[in-house]
């Protein structure tokens, strides 16, 4: 199962990234060549007695490539490019904000969205695991509007922006989207020659370079290539080395003409060491030094990604256009994972003895930290994810009497397949055999120094194989009743069929809850409705209602539960307001909302599931983005989430009862602020704060993770063709927990300590 990267491959990636490419946002206003001027008038009018007086014109604005504010979206099916016309909260993290914060991963970028928390990879959910408004968004990540469901870690080197649409949105996107969707917007070719090279180095020893070349050819065509290479220690935590490189070529034909064709690809290879956190003790993450990592030195997460896409858009006239987009995505993930799962001591024979609470569930107090040990478990696997998807969409603008219409219609087709071969490594603690799947034991306060013990062979486990297909058809009409009143209404019909097979219990033995084979087809109708009131172009008030659904086999993974389960049904209500101030340079928004999940799947004591749960989140959010003055800009927000499991597990005796609890990884309060000030267009200073309130690491609410404030800072010197920027992360070296997972009772992953980063960018 072990896979290696040769020195030749690594050197090729370094040479490629250092001198081959550049990174420059495309010209957003490029629309092809200027039109041919009309012939001169053969019969000019006679001159008037006096020439007309030219009125003075004042043009104001700022450099769009450096603005944190984004007022227009890229998602075709939202029904409006202007975000003021969307009856839901949409938060956009653009390239300028990511550059200012030196955010290089999807997780780092979406921390700018209040209400977002990060879950760590585990078991069958390797890669980015993001919670949005208290609900998992693992399968609600998109790439240019196409579902990006595979399990891998996403980089920002090829992204122009990240759009987060809040609330249930199955009418727009099909299954999923309970808390919303996260859409990654890739960089597109434009008709402006642009080259940008950048290099980064951190105090941890990470070296990273990105590059991008945008080259027009012909009158209406352009090509663009983005590249990335990084190597070194990613955080202040031990055993977190990475070796990653990627390439994202794209071509756009017919720019500014009625028919535009875009072809693109994202190719990545990653070989990372991932930290899986620390286990709990007495209801909190065990209090050990931040740098401790219970993984082994030969652990790795190796991923190969091939994403291909093609888009054809044709404008028949200004009021009618069609679009077709296709995507192929293949991701292979090979993982050797060792986690610190359980706390204990060494018994009289020096074997591992797990710590347990005392009578009456009193806290464990059997030994000081220097006598505690951690039992390490293995969750090795090899995963293959494949997705084919096609979208066909039409947009028509027309009038019926006095009413204007913006009608969207679309059809989605998709096929997905998934395989997961698991392995375990069985070892011992001081020569005493451990339970199956456990690799060894290690002192709680120290990082493991070596690799997998020689007496821990890798043993094959379950082989899961699954596939699914889906079909969806929808329409959405935005009706302009008056210039200040718009109504939004939409319907979507979906059919989703999936089959899951497991090699375990292939004989379907009575009493064994592992599912050898399961097939299910779900039908669902999604709805969307809204009212938008816009007294002026600078203000918008709205109310909306939307639904979504989650099939039980949506993630194509299932090893327990012998019965088919109905889809989880979700509905959301939202009321909000959006404003633009200071000549449109500053955007403010606020909303109150309620999201409820019905038929939520709850796990029983025997490992099976029942669709009896109900989870509800009531909340409010506010946000701001833009310039207060031409020199001073800001991006920030706050979210309040009142989340409860209204109906959960109610086992006999109340053991494991979750009714009334707070869903895992859902803080009541979270917020962020990022601001910069530029002096004489040359010097920039700034920084910000990220706050996440107290959370629980499991739905039983038995492991509590404390709140944290993290402060970052930045400073830059800007010349016409180059820029030198310094970023400092976690300025006060705060001890905090970055991501959580429910495995093994609830584990927490510490965030990085004080880290400095220097970025040099050259443009030509």
Automatic annotation (TrEMBL):
Where in the cell does this protein reside?
Cell outer membrane
Q: What is its main location?
A: membrane
Q: How does it sit in the membrane?
A: Multi-pass membrane protein
Gene3D superfamilies the UniProt entry points to: TonB-dependent receptor, beta-barrel domain, TonB-dependent receptor, plug domain
Superkingdom field: Bacteria
For whether the record's keyword set contains Membrane, the answer is yes
Q: What is this protein called?
A: Iron transport outer membrane receptor
């Amino acid at each position: 199962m072990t896979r290696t990267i040769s020195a030749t491959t690594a050197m090729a990636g370094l040479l490629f990234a250092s001198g081959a490419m550049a990174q420059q946002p495309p010209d957003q206003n490029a629309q092809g060549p200027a039109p041919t001027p009309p012939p001169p008038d053969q019969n000019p009018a006679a001159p008037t007695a006096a020439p007309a007086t030219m009125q003075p014109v004042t043009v104001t604005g700022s450099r769009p490539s450096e603005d944190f504010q984004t007022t227009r979206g890229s998602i075709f099916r939202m029904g409006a490019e202007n975000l003021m016309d969307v009856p839901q909260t949409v938060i956009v993290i653009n390239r300028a904000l990511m550059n200012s914060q030196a955010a290089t991963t999807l997780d780092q970028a979406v921390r700018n969205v209040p209400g977002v928390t990060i879950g760590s990879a585990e078991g069958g959910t390797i890669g980015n695991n993001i919670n949005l408004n208290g609900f998992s968004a693992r399968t609600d990540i998109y790439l240019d509007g196409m579902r990006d469901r595979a399990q891998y870690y996403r980089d920002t080197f090829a992204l122009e922006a990240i759009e987060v649409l809040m609330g249930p949105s199955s009418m727009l996107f099909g299954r999923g989207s309970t808390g919303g969707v996260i859409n990654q917007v890739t960089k597109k070719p434009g008709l402006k020659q642009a080259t940008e090279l950048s290099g980064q180095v951190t105090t941890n020893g990470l070296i990273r370079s990105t590059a991008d070349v945008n080259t027009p050819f012909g009158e209406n065509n352009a090509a663009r290539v983005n590249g990335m290479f990084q190597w070194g220690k990613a955080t202040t935590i031990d055993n977190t080395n990475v070796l990653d490189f990627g390439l994202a070529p794209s071509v756009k034909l017919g720019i500014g003409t009625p028919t535009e064709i875009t072809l693109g690809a994202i190719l990545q290879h990653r070989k990372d060491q991932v930290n899986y956190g620390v286990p709990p003790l007495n209801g909190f993450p065990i209090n050990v030094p931040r740098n401790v990592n219970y993984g082994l030195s030969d652990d790795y997460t190796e991923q190969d990604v091939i994403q291909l896409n093609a888009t054809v858009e044709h404008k028949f006239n200004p009021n009618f256009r069609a679009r077709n987009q296709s995507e192929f995505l293949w991701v292979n993930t090979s993982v050797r994972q060792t986690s610190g799962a359980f706390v204990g001591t060494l018994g009289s024979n020096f074997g591992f003895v797990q710590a347990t609470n005392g009578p009456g569930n009193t806290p464990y107090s059997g030994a000081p930290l220097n006598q505690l040990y951690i039992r390490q478990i293995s969750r090795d696997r090899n995963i293959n994810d494949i997705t084919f998807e096609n979208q066909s969409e039409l947009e028509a603008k027309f009038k019926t009497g006095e009413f204007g219409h913006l009608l969207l219609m679309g059809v989605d087709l998709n096929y997905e397949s998934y395989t997961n071969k698991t392995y375990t490594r069985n070892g011992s603690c001081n020569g005493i055999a451990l339970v199956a799947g456990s690799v060894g034991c290690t002192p709680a306060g120290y990082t493991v120094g070596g690799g997998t013990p020689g007496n821990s062979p890798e043993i094959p486990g379950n082989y899961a194989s699954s596939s699914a297909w889906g079909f969806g058809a929808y329409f959405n009409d935005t009706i302009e009743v008056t210039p200040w009143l718009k109504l939004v209404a939409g319907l979507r019909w979906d059919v989703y069929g999936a089959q899951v097979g497991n090699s375990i219990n292939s004989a379907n033995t009575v009493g064994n809850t592992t599912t050898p084979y399961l097939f299910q087809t779900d039908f669902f109708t999604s709805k969307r409705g809204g009212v938008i009131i816009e007294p002026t172009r600078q203000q918008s008030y709205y109310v909306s209602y939307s639904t979504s659904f989650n099939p039980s086999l949506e993630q194509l993974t299932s090893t327990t539960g012998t019965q088919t389960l109905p889809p989880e049904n979700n509905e959301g209500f939202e009321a909000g307001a959006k404003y633009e101030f200071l000549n449109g340079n500053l955007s403010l928004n606020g909303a109150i909302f309620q999201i409820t999940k019905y038929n939520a799947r709850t796990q029983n004591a025997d490992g099976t599931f029942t669709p009896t749960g109900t989870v509800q989140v009531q909340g409010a959010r506010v946000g701001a983005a833009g310039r207060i003055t031409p020199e001073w800009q800001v991006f920030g927000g706050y979210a309040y989430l009142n989340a409860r499991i209204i109906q959960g597990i109610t086992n006999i005796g109340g053991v494991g009862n979750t009714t009334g609890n707070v869903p895992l990884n859902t803080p009541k309060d979270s917020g962020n602020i990022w601001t910069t000030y530029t002096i004489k267009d040359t010097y920039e200073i700034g920084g910000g704060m990220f706050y996440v309130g107290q959370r629980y690491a499991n739905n039983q609410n038995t492991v509590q993770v404390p709140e944290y404030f993290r402060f970052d800072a930045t400073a830059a010197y800007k010349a016409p063709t180059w820029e030198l920027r310094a970023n400092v992360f976690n300025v006060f070296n705060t001890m905090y927990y970055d991501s959580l997972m429910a495995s093994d009772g609830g584990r927490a992953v510490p965030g990085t300590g004080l880290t400095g980063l220097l970025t040099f960018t050259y443009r030509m």
